[in-house]
Amino acid sequence: MAGGAMVSTNSGGGKEYPARMTLYVFLTCVVASSGGLIFGYDVGISGGVTSMDSFLLTFFPSVYKKEKQDRSTSIYCKFDSQLLTAFTSSLYVAALLTSFIASLVTDLFGRKWSMFRGGIAFILGAGINATADNLFMLILGRLLLGVGVGYAIQSVPIYLSEITPPRLRGMLNIMFQLMVTLGILIANIINYFTNKIEGPWGWRVSLAFACVPASIIAVGSLVLPETPNSLIEHGLNEEAKATLRRIRGVDDISLEFRDLVAANRRCKEIRDPWSIIMERKYRPQLAMAILIPFFQQLTGINIVMFYAPLIYKAVGFSGQASLMSTVIIGTINAVATLISIITVDRVGRRGLLLHGGVQMLISQLIVGTLIALKFGATGEATDISKPYASCVLFFISVYIAAFAWSWGPLGWLIPSEILSLEIRSVGQCIAVSVNMFFTFVIAQIFLTALCHMKYWLFFFFAGWVVVMTVFVALFLPETKNIPIEEMGLLWKEHWFWSRFIKDEENTEMGNLGRPYSYTRVQVATRVVLCRNRV
Ligand code: BGC
Q1: Which of 182, 301, 397 for mutating ligand 1's site (highest number of atoms within 8 Å of CB)?
Q2: Of 99, 296, 389, 455, which one has the fewest beta carbons inside 10 Å?
């Protein structure tokens, strides 16, 4: 993510830092996680408003006409409009471009100022969106929201990982995802109620509510402490010590402080990280930074997140019922993410991803088949019974639950934890960009793809789920309980990735920048020891 951003060092090398979750850290994380709320609110809000008649009538009259008047239109093509999808997808292009600028701001001015800017851009975007009376204002507002998301998604995970004790980092990283799902759920609930408002006000209220999480993060970031890592980067060592004492809740922070200073020195010595990550020995980490977010989006999750209300309307739900179904799905998404938080360090990443993959595959195949049976290739169906529509909803829920305890949180966690220190920030930047890019692509092409591929589109995404599940089985090493600094060892013992690392590169840098040398046997033993750590 950030150019030279550091993540605080770990207990590698047998050292232990104070790992208490102080109230201070907890509150800090709650405010910082509003960055997740912002992101989630945007994901969840667009599907609902684009299904509201008054919204379509104001900005997309041709889509409204197609939906209302042309009874013969196939369900697959009812909502096919490049402009309608541009409303949803424009945010992600802006987020993608902003995350690069945000990475500079995070380094130059600190993490909290990046979060602050995100909050302000978001408030502006929400204001313009809520008062929009033409398409230009609508898209402009959406682009500003994208700028807000770009800042938040870039700075918040770094902030969280630098402020929390190493042992709690995995759980707190997923807390960011929990906030994303809560943001989606809140948006779904707000859409449900605002849809009942007569006249053109419903969608305006929905879009205006985005100011709430944005204000939390803007105001919150003013009162949050800057991270010790960032303070050290700016030469403010005494302030860094004081902050460290406050957030760890202990007086003796000398060990952690020394390691942070050493890590900072190492970061400064690092050559251009973009050329480093291209080196052969980093091939496994580069591959993961690209493929994990790519696969996450190719699960097809955002089809449901962005367009579920339209899909439900198309399969026969009324406007209100389709928004209620979206609330149900949003609830399942949040609860299943909670399950992931509880189980991720016990079941492990591979277990969750393999299980999630199989469950997603089965449910996608069933949803595709149900739609194929009812609507065939023409997309025309006259008698869709309520039980049939509910059955579609049920299997979509099964799919969502599987995503939410596997690829949802782990699609963010794994790239953030497998990268070694020297390529961590650049690797994160790649992961975020790939995620945003494919979110954009899927948001932009889904409605057109549905019109052309019809029910086959569901099987298309099911095919990708097969590919990613096989990939996890064969190529993803288990990262559960491996300290961040020792992650590099995993590739050395892996049947495939070990070929990219020469024997003389069989070293791993310790916290203080001293290279530890391991033989192959030591590597294997050490990985096993780390994994079995409680
Ligand atoms: C994904 C988003 C998705 C959300 C759904 C996140 O992990 O990155 O694209 O909308 O999960 O909960």
Answers
A1: 301
A2: 389
